[in-house]
Amino acid sequence: MRRQKKPPKPKAINFELIPPMDGSHEPEPYRILREIRDKHHPDLWQANIALAWRKNFKRDVDGHLVLGRCVKASDLNRECAPYDFVILLNREVWQDSEFLPEKKRALVDHELCHAARAHGKDGEPKEDERGRPIWRMRKHDIEEFREIVVRHGCYKRDLEEFGRALLAKQHQNPLLPLEPLPDVFAEQVGSLATDFNPERLAGSDAPQSIAAAGPDPLASEIAEASQKPAKRKTKRSRRKVLPDLAGNGKGSQPHA
Questions:
Q1: Quick check: is 232 in a domain?
Q2: Among residues 155, 117, 153, which one has the least CA distance to residue 135?
């Protein structure tokens, strides 16, 4: 008697839009978003920002565990839904009891820093033909936004450590341990409050995220390159020979 095949598992859905209101209750992520935006991001008051859970986040090939990500809606997205940005939150991390409110506020603050209004060459805010604000994605100033360090200190280090602890608790391979923070970096952080320049640099529209860092891929590439023998230079012409379209077996040189 043949065994009956098990029905295939349904495709997992790893995204879930968080409703702004749960009856008469405002969900915690939206409450934190509202408080942080009102206090630190008045330039985003016209932006329609949605929040969504990103479930089952896995480490990438470099060992990064994404904690949050800011995504700018394309023109087509804006035609389908009234959102200018969507902030994805790692559900497993956010709902962990050890992920304290101060870390949640710092994470949301970080992702909001990626959202910025686009300006023209004359310095005026840009609008589309419908009069809607045009937005852009803002890149990190250095390793972190200066105002985040001023408001929350070196919180990112705490988030990275938390990500490692969470991975270990989920019986996954832990990430490499972090080295202690150099004194010279601490001095630079202390000077950020006085050296802070509110002018924001232009960035790309690619989604920006914060993650717990893993092994350094650059160090691995350098180590591999040092073990490969050096290639000898040849004096042969590097000009490519094009195939003879006439089919006489000879090649023809490309014209300059």
A1: no
A2: 117
Q: For residue range 34-70, what is the model confidence (pLDDT) as tens digits?
A: 999 999 999 999 999 999 999 987 777 877 788 999 9
- Kindly state the tokens that stand for 247: 């089919």
- d(CA 86, CA 131) in angstroms, rounded, equals 21
What is the distance between the terminal CA atoms of the chain, rounded to a whole angstrom? 73
Tell me the pairing of strands 135-137 and 115-117: antiparallel
pTM: 0.60
Contact 214, 59 (CB under 8 A): yes
Q: Distance between CA 52 and CA 29 in Å, rounded?
A: 9
DSSP string of 144-197, one letter each residue: S-HHHHHHH-SHHHHHHHHHHHHHHHTTSPPPPPPPPPPHHHHHHHHHHHHH--
State whether residue 221 is helix, strand or coil: helix
In a domain, 103, yes or no: yes
The structural domain count of the chain equals 1
Determine, yes or no, domain membership for 121: yes
Structural domain for 102, as ranges? 15-227
